[in-house]
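Ticket #4471: structure output looks truncated?

Reporter: J.K.
Steps to reproduce: submitted the chain below (171 residues) through the standard prediction queue, then opened the result file.
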Amino acid sequence: GRNLGGRIDVRCIPQLLEQATELHRKGQSADAEIGYRRILDVEPKHADALHRLGQLLAAKGDFAAAKRLFRILTTIRPDAAKAWQCLGQVCESLGQHEEALRQHLEFMRLQPNLPDGFVAVGRCMVKLGRMAEISAALLAAVEPASAPSVRKWRDWQHVPDRKTSEHSASV
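Returned output as attached by the reporter:
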């Protein structure tokens, strides 16, 4: 249903979201995108439409647009772990690894028992050349500070990471 302004009636949002989601599942992304955008025209902070349109745009390779949507979503739903994870993934796709790392850390804070966050943090640290920090970060995340492996790591001599090694070799 449309109202006089040519926009959808707010009461139709649940049905339109269901239709757009089904189109999306069937691979009819252009039609699904139209549906999600129609919802956002009348309810710009509709979390499900933001999330699904962001996923659709990321799948199409429009990472900058997806990032804008996931950023809005994390603002209106700061406790939605999946939104932080998606934001981190599109930042990675844009080559923004430092920003991606921050988003993945927030995902880990919200979902500490899911391995996806650890993998994403490790991947970003590798891209940033922060090799020496990976072990420490992972150990600190999975074990209490008093655990033997954490104490062993803290007492261990610093092993230079890739950037430090490269710098030393060039001096």
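Triage note (M.O.): checked the attachment and the full token line is present. The chain has ten helices and no strands.
Status: closed, working as intended.
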